[in-house]
Amino acid sequence: MNDREHIVVMKFGGSSVADASCISRVADIVVGRHDTDTVCVVVSAMKGTTDMLLDAAVQAERGDRSYIETIATIEQRHCETVNTLHGETVSTPVLDTVTTMFQELKGILHGVELVRECTDRTADLIAGFGELLSIRILESVLLGRRCHPHVIDPRTCIVTDQRHRNARVNRPVTYERLRQCVEAADGLCLVPGFIAATVDGITTTLGRNGSDYTASLVAAAIHADELEIWTDVDGVLSADPRFVPDAFLVPELTFAEAAELSYFGAEVLHPSTMVPVVELDIPVRIRNTWNPTGGGTLITARAQSPFEIAGIASIDNVAIINVEGSGMVGIPGIAARLFTAIARAQANIIMISQASSEHTVCLCFRSDDAMQALQELEREFASEIVSGEIERPQLQTGMEIVAIIGEAMRGHPGISGRLFQALGDAQVSVHAIAQGSSERNISFIVSDTERERTLRTVHGAFFSSSEGKAS
Ligand code: ADP
Ligand code: ASP
Ligand code: MG
């Protein structure tokens, strides 16, 4: 690394590199910062690219040759972007690079079409092309601006297990390798987000939206002074602006609040993003690429939210399983059997609610996990179901988890009263409720047809106006 005093990691999401003008704007921001600071830039794929790559993989797997058209559309978009940035008259090295990468990609997809199989491992290989392409385009623009960026290949330094599509990072090894790569680069580094590799060099990905996590790994590895996540909104808002038009900028959040908001579905951050930076107390700022002078949201250990709650988030596509019966009451070991059965199903519980009567337990899963969990629960409690001590577990799909989050809720009576009063007044039916012992969130289940109404009702109950005045 060079002798500039401030080290910053800047991550630009898919919307920030969506087309040629966006990429130019990103280059402006990076060049401006590189004048004064040591900068590591992490970039996502151009908006929508990862979705289309994965669509092409599915099409090829089922023998549907429209994957060829899907890839042609992605290729055309990337080539047009290069041409707009560099002019169409001369063949630029980056255009050759992009074209070569598409040839490789088409070869892989042809293989998928022939074998009619796309394993998670192959899907990761295909999905990772989006970031490999966007980084080369940004590199070419920065080279044109007399910068000398060094592209780091995350497959040589971010080491994961083999859990394809959502791999777990070996952080000690990764930090060491990332540090060495950044130090060797001595200046401006570019890192494609989202992709990584197993210790054997097989490409993995860090889960959808995973570039945020790449950026926080880089920030922790090099002990950055700040991590900046540049996106298409002014920062973390009090609720998802697509459902709550009154949502406003939250200027400060604690690490724990940001982590809970992302865990409960605030897409603006990947849920793992906070883990590496919390350990080193590295501040995170969420900023808007289209409003670079805005203050954004600053996330630190000591933030003080001016509001009783910091925000509202929601997860859709949730299913609940109710397990109930007299055989649940006062019998030690029931919970252990429940969790063991669910672990066997490899299902991830995202919320649990149990009344103190112990008669009923409500378990929430992502819809994809629920059927497997249901089958394992039926198997585990088969004899109790036959004897009637436990009823056959009931599955309900089409649900939504909504959560209100905030440190200030702790020891602040009346928050849940206000919440459920507002939901009652709006006649929103609540299926289950849970509160973590941290008292940092209250989460509850509603039908997903009620999503928008619920979010707006709750937002109205806690935030009185679009200027962000807490009520
Ligand atoms: P990027 O492409 O920059 O990674 P994402 O689409 O992943 O951006 O995340 C930004 C989007 O997250 C916003 O455009 C907004 O629609 C959505 N979002 C959901 N909840 C929130 C929230 N509480 N605050 C801000 N944005 C949110
Ligand atoms: N391109 C990846 C995705 O769409 C990762 C990211 O954008 O953060 O999920
Ligand atoms: Mg994102």
Average pLDDT confidence is 93
Main sheet, how many strands, which sense, barrel?
A: 8 strands, mixed
Number of domains: 2
Q: Write down the Rg.
A: 24 Å
- Which oligomeric state applies? single chain
* CATH architecture field of the largest domain: 3-Layer(aba) Sandwich
Can you tell me the CATH class of the largest domain?
A: Alpha Beta
Strand content: 15-25%
Predict the CATH topology of the largest domain: Carbamate kinase
- By DSSP (H or I, 4+ residues per run), the number of helices equals 15
Low-confidence stretches: 466-471
- What spatial form do the alpha-carbon principal axes imply? globular
CATH homologous superfamily descriptor of the largest domain: Acetylglutamate kinase-like
The set of bound ligands, ions and cofactors reads: adenosine-5'-diphosphate, aspartic acid, magnesium ion
Helix percentage range = 40-55%
Distance between the termini: 48 Å
Would you count the extended β strands for me? 17
Main-sheet strand order equals 3-5-2-1-8-10-11-9
Structural class: alpha/beta
